[in-house]
Amino acid sequence: MKRVLFVDDDRNVLQGMRRMLRSLRREWEMDFAESGPDALEYLATGTYDVVVTDMRMPGMDGSQLLNEVLRLYPSTGRIVLSGQCDRETVLRCVEPAHQFLTKPCDSDTLKSTVGRACSLRDQLVDHWRKCIVSSVTSLPSRPAVYDELVAELKSPKASIERVADIIPKDVAMTAKTLQLVSSSFFGTPQRLSDGAAVVTMLGLDTIRLLVFSSKAFTPMEGSDPECRSLDLLVEHSRLVAEGARAIAEAETDDRVVVGDAYLAGFLHDAGILSLARPHDQHPPQLFCEAETMSFGVTHAEAGAYLMALWGLPDPIVRAVAHHHSPNDNPGDCFTPLAAVHVANAVLEEETFDRLGLDSPIDFEYLVRIGCAERLDVWRKLCETAKLQGATT
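and the corresponding structure tokens:
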């Protein structure tokens, strides 16, 4: 049974949530605390899957509570449920909160958001693995791109158009901005599938606050070889994204599916960045599958777990989770997963061939979804995207 802790200083709000969630009492063990200190007492009694807290509370507010939860219980999902707050107030919970819901919140949204966060814990059964990924509040950005963004924002002629060109060049910044627009951090949640549109929706003032008043974006602090490895990873991700988009455009006119394929391709290796963060017990080992496995979790699993915690759309999460093993994902039709899997595998084929290994393309999966005869077309699209990408 999942354990969920709700925190609000308004007793009437807590009673309302009790009534709203009564039908789930056989699935969730729910506790209700009227303050941050009371919540910490509950948390000290045992493991909770998710904490849902109000933001504005006397004494210890929501951001302070979630920072304590992050510090003491990093594997616990952290959700804010609060009324409309000014940007500066919201900014304080951007780091510790996985998602932000606004009051009044309808029962279906609350149930689905909390339920999804609870179910995610089952994907990573080991407590240490959950702690590693759940404690990630931002991913490391390319230093050159971060510096470019800072310089633009400091310019008296800074423009949102230019910022919208810069941020989509970085996997970490793209993931973080998607988290913010997929939840209610800065307005009504939006289902956007274009990195530049996401940035434009947030606006120049919000981006400034994120860069200069929070740790939402953080440049990688590492050696030159590590930074070069990050550049190579992002370049690989860009090529996968371009190939995935080309495949999706050949298969569907649905712009959401096409956009999801591109973003999933760009984020498919985000788990490498989440596992590359420094941890007391494990020094960072960058960008090698064998090293990533030393954490007891693949980068695909870690990336999908984090993207889901951050509230990104399910098609993107599934594509990230299964881009190496698409046959593990149910379904019998074309989705962004198919596009990302093939685009990534085509880029890896040369290395596999050099090592004497079979192609990484899962042909059995393509047969199952009825797309096996499209493989040659998709391969050419990916190779064209790679050639075009090499010239940009």
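(Above: one complete record from the training split.) Residues 2-123 form a domain with the Rossmann fold fold (CATH 3.40.50.2300).
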